[in-house]
Design a protein that fits this description.
Number of strands: 17
Strand content: 15-25%
Helix content: 40-55%
Distance between the termini: 90 Å
Radius of gyration: 30 Å
Structural class: alpha+beta
Bound molecules: adenosine-5'-diphosphate, zinc ion, magnesium ion
Length: 490
């Protein structure tokens, strides 16, 4: 039996979480990795299949060049070394969604090794090293809940190209893990190599986590968590698992190396199977595929077309447009949002106003219309040029800031351009002195009591009187002019 004092010491011991992530990103290609079948999501089951991806005997895989190009692009953007020669390997296991009995992957010689991703965590910069990025094919999908007592297999996904991006165990908290994932997804989106859609499974993550006594160098026993379908799920599952392992260790127990599944409804992880090891898979070089040779010229070409990524763009938005860091952060998280912003600012040079409209109203609408999960600029309700023109109308005092909302909503509903809307609805601001003086006179004679209060020194009443004039002009009066006229008349 443990002595009470020992158990107290154990309970007081503090542990440091250690986290490493394995991301499977679907590479954006029209066709699969080793055959010509479509990679489209959501088609009828088994529609996008052929003898190659169904694993018929005697067929031969033919490598899709785009898959390699996109993986090199990702490797370069994350500062990896690109192997001039890499190799395809068979990873052998049995499962009904894997008709060949093996998955074509890379094992000993992956295409990319040893890069890193810089992540901002709470304003500080944190470097997460990458172990490797390799290419592989996806498996099919077993469907269990359609026909009572038997399961079905859909092979549309079989042979869809994936990149597996493996990090070193460099993260120390669930928040860091979440920030790393968001940064990585943003990089893939900027590179246009993956659409980053977690719900549709084109960006998936397995999380590895262990605890070790604070100050220790040696890594503790890790648990791998699967079934993480959102960033929130990753963070919550890690929090749960850190707590669970902490309790096991504090009670003097040992964490067992295993794979656990996240249950998003119960918000717990459950043991799925004991850990499998590499030797269980009997990896060996695939005899159907030649070693992959990459020449410097191709790498150079890809390197020359690398786009500016979110981190650099964020800094440029601060320097070039004078945006606050917060705005620059939000506007550069996605490439299409940043593109939209820059297009609007090119049309009318008022970056802060454009940023405000984007971050406020446009994002709200996108969310309401569920366009934010898969942002595609073509499907946005308001074109960048129209948003810019609307801001310009406000800046030129053609419409009031308040009525700009009306114009914005109308653009959303009808897709018309702002000039047409202003004209049609008669929203032009009244800046004509004569008309405004008449309106002010009418208000002054109707509000004698307030006028008296103002003259007795109660200056706050001015706001009320301005409001009355605005009301009388249905919001179209130029408020600054109303203010001046009122003051002079009072
Ligand atoms: P496995 O052989 O189980 O696949 P790997 O060494 O390939 O393990 O690592 C898989 C992932 O787990 C990597 O992202 C790595 O950073 C992470 N990892 C490895 N060891 C630990 C550990 N002790 N604690 C947390 N994460 C770990
Ligand atoms: Zn096929
Ligand atoms: Mg591994």
């Amino acid at each position: 039996m443990r002595s009470p004092s020992l158990s107290v010491t154990c309970r007081r011991m503090s542990y440091e979480p250690v986290i490493g992530l394995e991301v499977h990103a679907q590479i954006l290609t029209e066709s699969k990795i080793f055959c010509g079948c479509s990679t489209r999501f959501g088609d009828a089951p088994n529609r996008n299949t052929c003898p190659v991806c169904m694993g018929f005997p005697g067929v031969l895989p033919v490598l899709n060049r785009k898959v390699v190009e996109h993986t090199i692009r990702t490797g370069l953007a994350t500062h990896c070394a690109i192997a001039r020669q890499s190799r395809w390997a068979r990873k052998n296991y049995f499962y009904p969604d894997l008709p060949k009995g093996y998955q074509i992957s890379q094992y000993e010689l992956p295409l990319c090794t040893g890069g890193h991703v810089d992540v901002s965590v709470d304003g500080a910069s944190k470097r997460v090293r990458l172990t490797r990025i390799h290419m592989e094919e996806d498996a099919g999908k077993n469907i269990h809940d359609v026909r009572g007592d038997h399961s079905l297999v859909d092979l549309n996904r079989a042979g869809v190209p994936l990149m597996e991006i493996v990090s070193e165990p460099d993260m120390r908290s669930p928040v860091e893990a979440g920030d790393y994932l968001r940064t990585l997804r943003s990089i893939l989106e900027y590179l246009e190599v993956c659409d980053g859609n977690m719900e549709e499974g084109s960006f998936r993550c397995d999380a590895n986590v262990s605890l070790r006594p604070e100050g220790d160098e040696e890594l503790g026993v890790k648990v791998e968590i699967k079934n993480l379908n959102s960033f929130k799920a990753v963070e919550k599952a890690l929090e749960y698992e850190i707590r669970r392992q902490g309790e096991v260790l504090s009670e003097g127990g040992a964490v067992s190396q295993e794979t656990r599944l996240w249950d998003p409804d119960a918000e717990v992880t459950r043991a799925m199977r004991t850990k499998e090891f590499a030797h269980d898979y009997r990896y060996f070089p695939d005899p159907d595929l030649l070693p992959l040779e990459i020449d410097d010229e191709w790498i150079g070409e890809i390197h020359a077309t690398l786009p500016e990524l979110a981190r650099e763009r964020r800094q440029r938005f601060i320097d070039e447009y004078g945006l606050p860091a917060y705005d620059a952060d939000i506007l550069t998280q996605r490439r299409d949002v940043a593109d939209y912003f820059e297009e609007a600012v090119k049309a009318h040079d008022n970056p802060k106003a454009v940023a405000n409209w984007l971050m406020g109203d446009l994002f709200r609408v996108l969310k309401e219309r569920k366009l934010d999960a898969a942002l595609r600029i073509e499907s946005w309700p308001v074109a960048a040029g129209d948003l810019a023109r609307m801001v310009q109308l406000v800046d030129e005092s053609t419409i009031s800031g308040k009525l700009a909302k009306t114009v914005f909503n109308e653009m959303l509903e009808t897709g018309k351009d702002p000039d047409a809307i202003v004209k049609e609805k008669g929203l032009e601001q009244v800046s004509d002195t004569g008309a405004l003086e008449t309106a002010v006179d009418e208000v002054l004679s109707a509000c004698e009591a307030q006028v008296a209060e103002y003259r007795a020194g109660k200056e706050k009443v001015l706001g009320f009187l301005v409001g009355q004039v605005m009301k009388a002009t249905r919001g179209k009066a130029n408020p600054q002019m109303v203010n001046e006229i009122l003051r002079s008349k009072l």
